């Protein structure tokens, strides 16, 4: 099956998102296209033949044979530091995918959508936001939890999109350092945050939650406790390798 095969991909562009996150634009041979929310496996091969692979969410809509992934550099990571810091334009990696069919959003969905991101969990949700902009009028609300303003990935684009698009609302939750004059003190995301910035359960939204395992489990539990339908809650979690 073509999605399970490894294919070569060359780096054609890179751009920093934060001090630790970098978006890589890869040109993949015979890319079949993907849905927002899907991911790929990226494989590196050393000169001595040693191989290592990791999964990364796709950050943007399909653009021909080009795809984008945003890599968060992990301390003591084996793959992410090389991708984030050392992979150079024209260098090649291998990709397998697109992968995943549950944690996806399709433009034909008309119901309200709530996106809840923790840290780099914003990446697949950003793909949904970007696809929606040109294909759908479904109302989106994003609650994005980060340690500090400096950790916001895609901050400028999210500000621009929320200012220009009346169907997209963005709320920030800062867990350690909040901006000056922010009425919300630093702290973890709470049920009050979900109630203030999300959709009420009787609106029957589809909810996508992505982030570290503990964050995702906590948010899912809060959503269920406030009456959201479990069948409408979709989660994607990650942890250190």
From TrEMBL:
Keywords: 2Fe-2S, Iron, Iron-sulfur, Metal-binding. PROSITE patterns: FAD_FR. It comes from the Bacteria. InterPro entries: Cbr1-like_FAD-bd_dom (IPR008333), FAD-bd_FR_type (IPR017927), FNR_nucleotide-bd (IPR039261), MRET (IPR050415), OxRdtase_FAD/NAD-bd (IPR001433), Riboflavin_synthase-like_b-brl (IPR017938). Its cofactor is FAD. CDD domains: FNR_iron_sulfur_binding_3. Coiled coil: none annotated. Residues 4-105 form the FAD-binding FR-type domain. GO terms for molecular function: 2 iron, 2 sulfur cluster binding; oxidoreductase activity. Pfam families: FAD_binding_6, NAD_binding_1. This is Oxidoreductase. It comes from Nocardioides silvaticus.
């Amino acid at each position: 099956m073509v999605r399970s095969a490894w294919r070569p991909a060359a780096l054609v562009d890179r751009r920093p998102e934060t001090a630790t996150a970098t978006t890589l634009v890869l040109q993949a041979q015979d890319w079949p296209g993907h849905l927002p929310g899907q991911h790929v496996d990226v494989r590196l091969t050393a000169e001595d033949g040693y191989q290592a692979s990791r999964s990364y969410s796709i950050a943007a809509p399909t653009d021909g044979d080009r795809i984008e992934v945003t890599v968060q550099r992990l301390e003591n990571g084996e793959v992410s530091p090389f991708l984030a810091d050392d992979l150079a334009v024209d260098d090649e990696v291998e990709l397998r995918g697109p992968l995943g069919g549950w944690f996806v959003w399709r433009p034909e969905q008309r119901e309200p959508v709530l996106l809840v991101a923790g840290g780099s969990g914003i990446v697949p949700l950003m793909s949904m936001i970007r696809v929606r902009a040109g294909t759908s009028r479904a109302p989106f609300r994003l609650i994005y939890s980060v340690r500090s303003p400096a950790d916001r990935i895609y901050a400028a684009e999210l500000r621009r999109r929320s200012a220009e698009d009346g169907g997209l609302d963005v709320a920030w939750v800062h867990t350690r350092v909040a901006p000056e004059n922010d009425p919300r003190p630093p702290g973890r995301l709470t049920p009050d945050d979900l109630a203030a910035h999300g959709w009420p359960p009787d609106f029957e939204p589809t909810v996508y939650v992505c982030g570290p395992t503990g964050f995702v489990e906590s948010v899912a539990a809060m959503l269920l406790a406030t009456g959201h339908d479990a069948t409408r809650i979709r989660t994607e979690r990650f942890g250190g390798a």
